[in-house]
């Protein structure tokens, strides 16, 4: 969390910060998932090889390797599904039910969900010295807030949050909102190697069914100080015709899933899908998110530009090399055994396995993912003219409006952002709850 303000670091270091968000997302390490598909021999085999190499500094610039931490769907008492990925609607509907019961008992307020509703912008009350929001404009009409105590929490993702604010209180955030853009660039390399004959533990061969392993390897380019991580999905699929669908559904990430074509002739191989993510250089002023008042659609009237600074370009080269080095380690150091998946832009040349590393243009994914920093937080908005949100999650000069999500992060690091976002969103919820409690308990 390089260059995060002290308030965010203190929050992240506070008791239960990580525990609470891990509980919310039901985070489980891949080697602890109780499923025949996860946490098995393949997981141990790949982890053992990587760990040994990382501990011996055999992969340059890598700091750590671990079993991947996955957000896992909860199992129910009657559930027969062994493993499912976390998905928001279930927990959200559970919260709605809980609030309904509490409201019925007079102990809470109901949680109302409006579907098919696009938030366009909000208006503040010109007569209110605190500039609090009084109207929310949506695709289903305007919603007038009857109380000045109504809070508006923007949780629409980094770019939409920024667009809503630029359309609502743009003047107050001039030079701040969207002046910084960070996030991750992405490389995806798919490789395979034959199942080792003299595996480390011959008593426990790979299963006769689909096995998936998930690992997380992190490092930093010492010259630029920018971070990267490589998420590795290892797949052993003895029966691709029936495994492919499960493999696609159960793989930890869309960027970590193998296709049926890749699994088809790989029954005697271990397939590695490596997604490497590096952080953009947030200080590069060539990257920005700007308001476009000429576009009449207020939900999309913004322009995004992302350029790669020299530092980021260097990191990308380092990260790609690390990924190839890690593949070599996972294949037991036998580089002749490794094949890479190549897809050609020429329709007459079919995609397939090759001993040659694919050209750079085939592995580097255009665009950015995990976008952050467009409304980054600062402990002192007066001394940082480009920061948008104060340490109470409030945009500059706004009251009763709050921001959640990756837009708050001043830098993106290389780590997957959702857990941290959830942690800060929970912190905001606790802070708002404290304020509401003190308001209702103070004598009028
Ligand atoms: C393919 C893919 C894979 C990913 N994998 C990972 C991963 O492995 N680990 C990880 O940590 N992160 C991952 N991410 C990133 C992660 O999904 C996001 O960082 C995270 O979901 C952001 O959370 P959020 O609540 O801020 O925004 P979102 O999850 O984007 O939620 C915002 C919601 O607001 C709604 N919305 C937007 N605009 C409006 C509007 N104007 N009015 C009303 N509603 C609106 C959207 O429809 C959406 O439902 C991945 C993302 C993608 C696309």
Terminal CA distance? 42 Å
The best one-word shape is globular
Main beta-sheet annotation: 8 strands, antiparallel
The oligomeric status of these chains comes to single chain
How many helical elements? Answer: 10
Annotation, overall tally of beta strands: 17
Count of separate structural domains: 2
Give the low-confidence spans.
none
Query: If you average the pLDDT, what whole number results?
Result: 90
Order of helices and strands: HHEHEEHEEEEHEEEHHEEEHEEHEEH
What is the beta-strand fraction?
15-25%
The rounded Rg comes to: 24 Å
Report the helical percentage.
Answer: 25-40%
* Category from helices, strands and their pairing: alpha+beta
Task: Name every ligand kind in the structure.
Answer: flavin-adenine dinucleotide
Could you describe the 3D structure shown?
With 444 residues, the protein is α+β, with helices and mostly antiparallel strands. The protein folds into two domains: 1-32 and 114-178 and 374-444, FAD/NAD(P)-binding domain (3-Layer(bba) Sandwich), CATH 3.50.50.60; 40-67 and 181-372. Helix content is 28%, strand content 23%. It is built from ten helices and 17 strands. Strands 2, 8, 9, 10, 11, 14, 15 and 16 form an eight-stranded antiparallel beta sheet that branches. Strands 4-5-6 form a three-stranded antiparallel beta sheet. The longest helix is centred in the last third of the chain and has 24 residues, at 418-441. The radius of gyration is 24 Å and the shape is globular. The site of flavin-adenine dinucleotide (FAD) has 16 residues, from helix 10. Flavin-adenine dinucleotide binds at residues 118-119, 155-157, 160, 253-254, 299, 370, 405-406, 416-418, 421.
